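We emphasize that the prediction below concerns an isolated chain of 169 residues; any contacts that depend on oligomerization or on bound cofactors are therefore not represented. The input was used exactly as deposited, without trimming of termini.
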Amino acid sequence: MVNKKIIKKKILLLGAFAVGKTSLVSQYLTGFFSEKYLSTIGVNIKSKTIETDNAILNLIIWDIADIVTHHNIPDTYLDTSHGLLLVYDLTRPETFDRIVEEHKGFLEKVPHIPKIIIGNKIDLVEDIELLEKTFSLNELTNIYTSAKTGENVKTAFDLLADSFMNDDE
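Result of the prediction step, given as a token string:
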């Protein structure tokens, strides 16, 4: 039996209310989506273990309430963070504007950790032009998801997980 390296990484999910952060986590961990909206209060912490040929990756996923921004995030949330998923709602352009500001703020606070922008609710968008206008942060990995259908949800988390595996090789 080969001894596998155990890697623990903490991911923060941030974004405005009702962009689908909790639903993305639920879809990723269980394949389940609920139409019921429950606002996150504080932080909801979940974990997922991914096993590869060489390592066991333990993702600690922090689903953070919408009131937390780069202006008021506790240092304790950031101190041991390894990646950010910045989530916005494709049907509400103002939520993208918030992500642009969050990205700028987090570049100052934690420039060294990977950041991915997730445009969620692709299942509700018919206008591809709207999609093309949203991604102006070219230096980031951008991905469209649907927490409802599961489209690209695993891909978004896996992109971040892959960056952790590559860092630790």
